Amino acid sequence: MSGSEGDLPAPPAQAEEDVRWMRHALGLAARAEAAGEVPVGACVVKDGVLVGEGWNQPIFANDPTAHAEILALRAAAERIGSYRLVGTTLYVTLEPCAMCAGAMVHARVARLVYGATDPKTGAAGSVFDIVRSERLNHRVACEPGVLAEECGMLLRGFFATRR
Length: 163
Prior knowledge:
Helix content is about 40%, strand content about 20%. It contains five helices and five strands. It has helices at about 10-35, 60, 70-80, 100-105, 150-160; strands at about 40-45, 50-55, 90-95, 110-115, 140-145. The longest helix has 23 residues, at about 10-35.
């Protein structure tokens, strides 16, 4: 799939599904926040069915790779029984970092839907565009900005209490 196809607006039914699953991801982000982690949540959906989910846990797990997206991808791969997650959509409340974007490419995720952009480390269009790079052997269609205000407010509120 070319990068330009991933930039087309989602059809109305798809947009409704995107909001539904992003709300689920926001609930997962709240779990991260309750544990003192940066509030990011992610879920992987295939054919309308939840196949994996995760929330940020690097502090709890003492694992720098325990980002919401990585945990959701791991859970989905285990459930599907394959490291290739063909035909899946990953929903995440914050634009993925380079590590998570690279994992999505390697897993062959079909589509990425994210909420808030990350102007410091975003790798789905803000700082880098790993998910749609023509230099890689797979590209992930990308739908940014779904419930962006809610996702951003959650993050801003979290960091405001830390300052």
